[in-house]
Amino acid sequence: MTNRLLIFIGLSMLLGLKLSAQSTYCNPMNLSYRFRLDTPSRREAADPMIVLFQDKYFLFASKSGGYWVSDDLKGWQFITNNTLPWENYAPTVVAIDNALYFLASEGKKIYKSIDPIKGNWEHCGEIDSSVTDPCLFLDDDKKLYLYHGCSNKNPLKVVELDMSNRFHFKGTSVALIYPDKENHGFEMGGDDNTRNSNPWIEGSWMTKHNGKYYLQYAAPGTQWKSYCDGVYVSDKPFGPYIFQASNPFSYKPQGFIAGAGHSGTFQDKFGNYWHIATMSISKKNMFERRLGLFPTVFDADGTMRTYTGFGDYPFLFPTKKEPNPESFFKGWLLLSYNKPVTVSSTLDVQTTRPEYAVNEEIRDWWSAKTGDKGEFIIVDLQGKPTINAIQINFADVDTKTLGRPIEQKEYQYLIESSDDNKTWKTVIDKSTSNEDLPHPYFELVKPINARYIRVMNVNTPDGKFAISGLRIFGKGTGKKREMLTDFEAKREEKDGRIVKLSWKKVTGATGYNIRYGIAKDKLYHNYMVYDKTEATIRSLNKGYSYWFTVDVFGEAGVSKSDKIIKID
Predict the structure, then answer these.
(1) pLDDT at position 405, please?
(2) pLDDT tens, 247-280?
(3) Which of these, 402, 391, 433, 435, lies nearest to 32 by C-alpha position?
(4) Which ranges in the chain are annotated with CATH 2.60.120.260?
(5) Which residues contact 414 (CB under 8 A, 6 or more apart)?
(6) Residue ranges of the chain with per-residue pLDDT less than 50
(7) pLDDT digits (tens, 9 = 90+) for 237-251
(8) What is the pLDDT, as a whole number, of residue 409?
(9) In 3-state terms, what secondary structure has residue 276?
(10) Spatial separation of the C-alpha atoms in residues 412 and 414, rounded to whole Å
(11) What is the CATH topology of the domain spanning 487-567?
């Protein structure tokens, strides 16, 4: 397929697209994630950024073979060409006057486009030497800076670029921040920040707010659930930079899919800030990753924070300026967690068990023996709750695809409901779909009440019919669970980066959300657990006091605790 034809198809789809009726979305973002060119066959997108340009949102991510465009952050259309270096990591794009400028990691060439919708880019300059994980930042005085770095030893740096001289360096790069795992628990490696290896400090991003420069960075490594973003603040582009007390400011180490690191911060059309972040699967390969979108805000004191509580549940799309990022959480709760599952077949009863489709772990999955029409999975909700939304997360089991296939491949299926497991009604019909979207999310136009939900395979584009998460959202019958008022929090004396919490089980609770922070009115961090009555958090920073509370959530809602414990 020619480059011109690809662009024509993309334009046709874009022009024919009507605004989505959906008011909500659910992470991971439902995009046409590209398969990597090397084996094992698996999808990836990471190191993302979004820029608002010509009243449209342009999304760039590593190894994607192109970029996406949207009018409203809802429906995304894919654009590609043969010009930009798609096999380089960490693309950065900045809008300057009437054009976009593009640079990728380990590359030197800068490209320009005045009409990115058509996919037309031209080489317009070249930096003096290649850098890793670049971030182009245009200041209010029209000076252009390049922040960069990706190392477990070396610092993040910055250099000014000369736009009048084809983007050559103006001077040499200046060191800004270094890793500091001895004081910053979130920079420790491992899913639970338990590894004592040097963290990878990378993924620079710069946001200027109220005259302050917020230098964001990722740690400790992209393959870990603990992958997150920290931030330093300065009055000047070259620093000095001061560690923000509330850190990491973007952190999601638990839940169905974890990770909120190496991100790009942008403002939507209403003035809200958002964080488009890398989320980790890292099962087939450490670079098997997805994207997540989280609301971000600067509080009255200038503290930057990203709201990741219930960060893989339904969130509202922006329609106005929202001063409180928690208001984007729709409030629909999970109805499918650990519910009984019936399937047509199972590939391996040890490694691809049916219950893995509802255990809230994207690194596990159920797989049928084939990808044939007629394979199915049924979830028994054990009641007739109100169902508002359904998300399917397809897993890449025995896939052979490498790169983007020349011919369109699509997932085709039916989502059905039943009260008796015998008579079925169609809820969503994707039996003739032409979409290659592995994380489809459906907000029902009219909520339904049903006991059983079935996904019936019509066509699997490659490999087996496999699901890592069949997630059903809404409101269960009954009342909210009781408030948790009796819990303990104890900080380790020898290592102030670690705190242990424990509480008594609340009957019928789905799980617990720990909120904590550096002040009683700054409980900006979230740590979610299912089926546990304790948690060890190893992401604290030495030298700061912390406040903790534990909320209870179930199918009927969230019960916020009014008890807050301070630990020094």
Answers:
(1) 81
(2) 999 999 999 999 999 999 999 999 999 999 999 9
(3) 435
(4) 334-475
(5) 426, 428, 429, 430, 431, 454, 455, 456, 458
(6) 1-20
(7) 999 999 999 999 999
(8) 83
(9) strand
(10) 7
(11) Immunoglobulin-like (2.60.40)
Angle at alpha carbon of residue 159, lines to 80 and 96, rounded to 5°: 45
Sequence-separated (6 or more) residues with CB below 8 Å from residue 278: 46, 47, 48, 203, 218, 222, 227, 259, 260, 261, 262, 263, 289, 290, 291, 292
Q: Which of 473, 475, 454, 476 is nearest to 465 (CA)?
A: 454
Q: What's the rounded Cα separation, in Å, for the pair 387 and 390?
A: 8
Contact 327/362 with Cβ under 8 angstroms? no
The one-letter amino acid code at 153 reads: K
Dist. CA 150–CA 204, nearest whole Å: 9
Region(s) of the chain under CATH 2.60.40.10: 487-567
Predicted pLDDT of residue 19 = 36
Phi, psi at 365, each rounded to 5°: -160, 155
Q: Which CATH code is given to the segment(s) 3-331?
A: 2.115.10.20
- Residue 18: what pLDDT? 33
Residues in the chain: 568
Could you tell me the CATH superfamily of domain 334-475? Galactose-binding domain-like (2.60.120.260)
pLDDT for res 23: 96
What's the rounded Cα separation, in Å, for the pair 486 and 460?
49
The C-alpha angle with vertex 78 and arms to 21 and 223, in degrees rounded to 5, equals 95
